[in-house]
Amino acid sequence: MDRRGYIKTEFSKIQIELSDKQTAQFEQYYEMLIAKNEVMNLTAITEFEEVVQKHFIDSVMIKDLRIPIEGERWIDVGTGAGFPGVPLKIVFPQLKVTLLDSLNKRVKFLQEVVNALGLEHVEAVHGRAEEFAKKAEYREQFDCCVSRAVANLASLSEYCLPFVKVGGAFVPYKSGKIQEEIEAAGRAVEILGGTVREMKEFVLPGTDMYRCLLEIEKVKSTAKRYPRKAGMPTKEPLH
Questions:
Q1: What CATH number does residue 55 fall under?
Q2: Stretch 177-199: mean pLDDT, rounded?
Q3: Is 78 annotated in some ligand binding site?
């Protein structure tokens, strides 16, 4: 089976029927990712089938949560090589997506991807979550904040919840059993204006890899003092 056939087939297994254009976009994204990965570290996963499963499919599994997707404004914090933001934009073109990363080289790569794939209503921005979450044009402006960044839930919530408008959601993508982490972060989530609504556990299709998606609803505004200054949410998580 050729690459495009494989992409189409794998997405159909999770009840997503890709158009020819979307399939071509995923193939081109993969090619750009691998080419750029030779000169800068974007991903440890480079085999085609693995990238499709562990990056592309994994990114869009949020579709199984009860979160509105059509035409919403989303932000991907600590997007790295563009996961989950870029796959989400390819599959749900109506989304308006902001890709935020603290490394300018990655942001430049993402801008190249956005241009090459012809993705509209996507901005790739260079900066730290602690600073951007203080800016009026970003603070509490998003229907949903997603993040696959590696950080404990209390820290990640402090980075991400300030971006979410009241009534919106923050969805961290986790790859380990996180029941203890959820319990430990409960107070932090509450302080930041959130409440845990739903946890979706699954094994990534075609693999034996456990995944967990958490839906944290924003129920009240985040106090002005959060997020704290750079590095603090990681060094001293709220509890």
A1: 3.40.50.150
A2: 92
A3: yes
